[in-house]
Amino acid sequence: MSVTASNGGDTILITSSGGQFSVVIDNTTYGPFTSINNIQVTGGSAGDVITVLLSGNTPVNITVLGGAGNDVILAANGASAANAGGYSFVDGGAGNDLIGTGWGNDIVLGGDGNDSVVGGGGRDLIIGGLGSDLLVGNIDEDIIIAGYTSHDADRDALLAIMAEWTSTRTYSQRVANIRDGSGTASRANGNAFFNPDGPSRTVFDDAATDLLFGGAGNDWFFFNADAADRDFILDQRPNEQVADVDLEA
Hints:
Layout: E1 2-4, E2 11-17, E3 20-25, E4 28-33, E5 38-42, E6 49-54, E7 61-65, E8 72-77, E9 88-91, E10 98-101, E11 107-109, E12 116-118, E13 125-127, E14 134-136, E15 143-145, E16 148-149, H1 155-165, H2 171-180, E17 203-204, E18 211-213, E19 220-223, E20 232-233, E21 241-244
Parallel strand pairs: 1-5, 2-6, 5-7, 6-8, 7-9, 8-10, 9-11, 10-12, 11-13, 12-14, 13-15, 14-18, 15-19, 18-20, 19-21
Antiparallel strand pairs: 2-3, 3-4, 16-17
């Protein structure tokens, strides 16, 4: 299923119940639709309100591309941890966006602008992008990056990293595998790394002050600790990994 907004600032709501999906665009209802495995919503050039709220345990992957404008996006897959069937991939794009996700192991890119991102249940990957952002991991073990990475435009690389992050390996092994491949003999992320140091680094600061809050679980933070526009981790625990990142050379 693919839904594209106009350029006038739309309100889009997609819901599911009992295997049937309905779409409401600016108070006009379409559907019901069945046999849906993937949903993509593409925003327009103005600020959109996009809500994808799915129930049941049918595996459905959600993609929301916010586009330009100040968007409000909720991409929630499953009513509980037990029936979170798929994952959400959200790219807020340009603008000051408000983004939330539900159950499932989700990927969120804030994009340009001063964004607020709140993850849900599951192991999430949250990348703030440019601008002063508020990034909240919420429940479970999350990767929270104040700036941006070399992989932001490479969805396959991000999915490979998430395959490792959501594996059954220990927290320390997953961190080492994603950082430089040193955790275990085999890894799910291949040659996609979040390396904060050296000439091969892939994570960079955005020269803006960001606020990071991990929530429950052992999180992994990437932030700028020592520049004028430093970032702040609001709830770092002693056993959580942190990486100090710098501006791209």
